[in-house]
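Entry 14. Ran structure prediction on the chain below.
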Amino acid sequence: MIRTLLFLALTLSAPGEDAPVSFSRDVAPILRRNCQGCHRPGKTKGELDVTTFAALLKGGKHGDTIKPGAPGESELVEQISGDEPAMPPEGEPLIAEEIARIERWIAQGAKDDTPPPGELTPAAPVYRLLPAVVSLAWSPDAAILAVAGTGEVVLHSGDGERIVGRLLGTAPRIESIAFSADGKLLAACGGAPSEFGEIQLWNVAEQKLVRTIRTSRDSVFGVSFSPDATRVAIGCADKLVRAFDVATGAEVMKCDNHIDWVFATAFAKDGARVVSASRDKAVKLIELASGRLIDDINRPREPVLSLARHPKEDWVAYGSDAGAVRLHRIEPRGGRLAEGDDKENSFIREFERLKGAVQALAFSADGETLAVASVGGEWRTFKTSDGKRLAGSKEPGAPIYAVACDPEGRWIATSGVEGKVRLWEAKTGAPVRAFDAVPLALERLATSPP
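Output, structure tokens:
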């Protein structure tokens, strides 16, 4: 059934026999669906990478994969054709229309029409169902609540009453968003899994894309600004921590001391050090100028998924996949730990454990409150100074992936798998309002139940 629907979709959208076949629109999606599982950076079976035109043209260990103008002499066509095609080795073979489209593209000269990063003007997504929301951020003046959508950032008014803008990028996934301290810039990071990582830098007032930074070969996470907004840092699925110059987009730091995916970053107050959190259970302190590891901040216990820096102190809170939330000073522990040594000079306190992985946490603007949310469907606020619980949801709900604190101290915003943003009174935890994270298509709204 799925292949039948795919065939119909391809047939309806297929270019005519004599019409030019586009690599980026017509061929690359076929390769992405059927070939990139085995032929991508990090898993180049036969030394072949098909994730970009340049890599495909380069070929693999058996030589050229395509011969422009001659589909019958192209190794790619031979491998995907016939009664029992060699590729893909598992799963269903390509359907006739997919093969024909690749053949026509090669016959027409196998031209590359991949748009350079930042030059593609994407169409606004049309939502018929609400997508899961993985990141929220309030602007420092509380005027805008930014919400990560599908390949875009949706800007809501700070009170959630209306949508005031949509920032449409080229990356299909947005994993993290953050405002600069002065509110002039918004950074969004994400990318396309197994293809590329991307950072987008937006001028908030003009809602204009200032710069796109492509990096890594997979999605990137946990974007953060330096205090002076001259640098941005990210964590990567390739286990690296990277930092970039905001003005030029140049990479200025790369640290390879993690041994698993890095999900979050934060700058120390002086901007000269970066904190990173990883699934390898470590929270690391890195020197920005050199990329040198200064020390681990924590004693590794559980995979770390989220991170938030205190707005006034050099403290950082982190959340784990086991529901733990801990607060540490951003400073070395006084030397590397020997096995079995529990010394944690930077440790301040642990907060009440939540049910489910802690995907998000955020400090209030004054730093006196820490908001925490988990996939167990609950959120809580704690007093930073002593760890006392202040407010929270009365009953667990749908998994929560994102939380933000209103800079004016009025509300807590949460969102997650259900695709709605919910505002709660910061002091009492009482619900204020709920609204759709993204604009739903009119036909979907007309048929939705009340």
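DSSP finds six helices and 30 strands in the chain. Will compare against last week's run tomorrow.
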